[in-house]
Amino acid sequence: MGRGKLRIYLGAAPGVGKTYAMLSEAHRRIERGTDCVVAYVEHHARPRTEVMLHGLEEVARRELEYRGTVFREMDVDAVLRRAPAVALVDELAHTNVPGSRNAKRWQDVEELLAAGIDVVSTVNIQHLESLGDVVESITGVRQRETVPDEVVRRADQIELVDMSPEALRRRMAHGNIYQPDKVDAALSNYFRPGNLTALRELALLWVADRVDEYLKQYRSDHRVSKIWGSRERIVVGLTGGPEGRTLIRRAARLAEKGAGGEVLAVYIARSDGLTAASPKELAVQRTLAEDLGGTFHHVIGDDIPAALLDFARGVNATQIVLGSSRRKSWQYVFGPGVGATVARESGPDLDVHIVTHDEVAKGRGLPVARGARLGRARIVWGWAVGVAGPAVLAVLLNTVHLGLANDMLLFLTVTVAAALLGGLLPALASAAVGSLLLNYFYTPPLHHWTIADPKNIVAIVIFVGVGVSVASVVDLAARRTHQAARLRAESEILSFLAGNVLRGETSLEELLERVRETFGMESAALLERASDVEPWTCAGRAGLGRPVERPEDADVDMPVGDHMALALTGRVLPAEDRRVLAAFAAQAAVALDRRRLQEEADQARTLAEGNRIRTALLAAVSHDLRTPLAGIKAAVSSLRSDDVAWSEEDQAELLEGIEEGADRLDHLVGNLLDMSRLQTGTVTPLIREIDLDEVVPMALGGVPEDSVELDIPETLPMVAVDAGLLERSVANLVENAVKYSPPGSPVLVAASAIADRVEVRVVDRGPGVPDEAKERIFAPFQRYGDAPRGAGVGLGLAVARGFAEAMAGTLDAEDTPGGGLTMVLTLRVAEAASGPRPLVQPERQVT
């Protein structure tokens, strides 16, 4: 049995009619005699959809209980036993209830397909996994239920169910999608016209890309080389010259005239890599193409017209845009040129546009990647060996004559040595000098510049030819080796930059320092300006060289966009270094943008935190502060009342209530003020040497007697703290521990010395706190568990940690062995505090 086929109805939003279309398809198939059942369809109380279920066989669902509620899910086993030809499965991205056969419904569908059952299903565009972030940015809602894109892409048929936003909103207003009580909220939130239009565009583009993929696959499978003009695709052939910008803009205008036009800019480089266009110009043209909505492609090919035509036919292009040749008239003797060749061989299915520009007939002017320069010392040694070597060898051979053949081999050896050291020119000089010396000293007649035997002429000619050939090969190998080493270094640098782009680890200043070190410059600076008329400002700088205020003042400048440039001082860089410099410049711009985005995010986070604190503060004032005030006012009103004669015991009880309310109010206001000081950074600790046994006992005044046990050894070293802040921190910790400790279980406050630290541990035997909540309890206005509102505003632990960090200490929560929670307050020993402060700053900066 083969695998079943999957058909998906794709919609832009709920209510466009996917389920209705699926049920209509089911009725059509049943009329044709197909065995079709409803495995799972949810009509959501929509009358027209519910009516479409009439006459269709439904497989009974499986009931599952989860958290006291019974859910009805698709019964995969029942559908497999029924084994229909076609099964209808609604809501492909649905998450099944825990305890189901699979976690996701699309996994259930995979089982049905594997069993040979055809499946018809539905899904909305916002449920595709790859579009989750895009949909969230549009609608503000994060989709929890998603389906992998590959599952939908593998579908045999995908049918778009489309509806205009206005029609969908009318359906919503008429109550055809949601219940009446939800209509207004839906229309003003998720179903806004802008949201629906953006989702509709996503759906249309996704389906269009899927159709394009299918068309490419069909052309490949059927080996269709002829271009099908299903949509206008315009290929722009670039040479790296300045006319490329004109060609890209002209192609963009051509694309705008046709619906769905697409621009593909392509640069074709030779495989040997010895010639290349300007990296700076190509970077500008890449940016221009992408800004105009096109794409940029880099292709390798030795036959440029053939490579360009192959690329155009491969992407199913309909037009090619080329610039008029920049060659001068006499250069046409070498061939018709790329434009004429492409126009001749394009055939009837490709239109070729030859666009004139300002660079016509001005020569190509492209930079050529020259051979690698050898070091000055090697060149000097090469010339010395090439010129002086044959003379020295001639002197030696005059004493011992080995025969003409051996003499020629020795002179050839000197020529090869000159090529290895100094390159081609010293080798040519060595061959010339060696041939003259061979002719004068060793070829009959001796000591004359003539050659009697014609065979010796051939021998000397062969000697010169072999010498030149060997020198050329050696020189080419040296240049290629150096070029490969250079490209390897460039690849390592580009790999470093790519890693930084992904990780975002290097700051702007570190990157500029890396630029300066890489190119051996004195300084590197990133300059920017708001507009063409504004002055340049320095966004970041590295090195000790002279400051640069304008790109024109630098030895090397690399523009980044229209209003930013990377300026270097120290020396002028060769042309081949600008390719890597362009990558550094682009990364510097990214680092600057990342830094500014981070600053904006920090500011937004600070504002959000401030708003949250203010909101919580208002909530605390409205309830927790009002409660003791209400108690105080009630007690005072009772005492002042003349209608009741209060006994002394009653009066004492009312006065005690007033005192307790005032103490509680004082404690709450103190915590609120402390938290406000911490959030605004106005806490300035007065650090001095203090014994713990002088401060900790004073912090226990606000808790009942016999509720705390102290274990503070007298041998503990002195700590560097602010006595007031430490007392307040310990008091808050002890109060919190006593609040949650069971009756009869006193809180233990113990201290011990560890290296250059002193730990104060507040141990309780209460219910404890799970690991995932241990950090959350230190957040302002947080109460753990079901603590009542009267238990405080939830600032005690936040204030305690803030004061601890202000004194360069830490406060953490640990589990108490045997049950409960232990607060660990770590303080600096007085001797250690006199040394350097730790490099790791506390999370909350307090000044």
Automatic annotation (TrEMBL):
Highest taxon of the lineage: Bacteria
Compartment(s): Cell membrane; Membrane
Catalytic function, reaction form: ATP + protein L-histidine = ADP + protein N-phospho-L-histidine
Transmembrane region(s): 380-397, 409-437, 457-478
UniProt-listed Enzyme Commission number(s): 2.7.13.3
Membrane topology annotation: Multi-pass membrane protein
Keywords: ATP-binding, Kinase, Membrane, Nucleotide-binding, Phosphoprotein, Transferase, Transmembrane, Transmembrane helix, Two-component regulatory system
Database matches in CDD domains: HATPase, HisKA
Descriptive protein name: histidine kinase
Organism the protein comes from: Streptomyces justiciae
